[in-house]
């Protein structure tokens, strides 16, 4: 019988647990203990008071809804743009100037993406001044507000700068890997139409292969910090910004709120990840 400790995968998994899983688990345990009043500066014995005070306020719920709204709309718009781009620009995405340029946004940190959007869409930005010079608006300050706006348009645009190139390349790769073009030719040979090719062949295959990546990106956008911090509105804030603001406040009564928000976020992420791995298990692969 083989000793599992001699298997390199055993030590790789043990290292992963030690470096990645254990610190997160310890942090969540401490956050839970703090939120129940058993540790920290506000410890007073086990109590539900902090949870009751937090969950009965609308701030945390509006923050979660705002984060879900931004993440969902971002991924919906990403599919609406990336899918036709990947299908109509198949060859340019593989070679030439576009094939090189499409990789550049993927190298941008989120802070840089936020800075680009800020420079483009503020009242004195790169778009406002030409609009004012052409007489389309009275002054640069009259340019449509997309920074710190109520609908979080600036935040969504910054995310789209990264997600659209990624999904365009990803769907193009799926298109080739699943031989969608050959299947479409077969559909036409058997009497189908271009619409049948799109509706019954290309879309179901690409959507099935892209579901896992979509859910993982949803988690990433839902919990993003830099872009919402720089471009997002002050109320309601996205959950990551709200959590850090509460944690850094001088009012010690706000720290349990930060820990509770982090715990709720962790539960939601764990639920989505469970769904991701279930779908990946059904596909027999992690969407790739």
From TrEMBL:
Instruction: Alphabetically list the UniProt keywords.
Output: Cell inner membrane, Cell membrane, Membrane, Transmembrane, Transmembrane helix, Transport
Q: Report the residue ranges that make up the ABC transmembrane type-1 domain in this protein.
A: 64-276
Please cite one Gene Ontology biological process associated with this protein.
transmembrane transport
Q: Where does the protein end up?
A: Cell inner membrane
- What membrane topology is given? Multi-pass membrane protein
Which species does the entry assign this protein to? Acanthopleuribacter pedis
What sections of the protein cross the membrane? 68-89, 101-121, 153-175, 215-232, 257-277
Q: Which GO terms describe its cellular component?
A: plasma membrane
Name of the molecule in the record: ABC transmembrane type-1 domain-containing protein
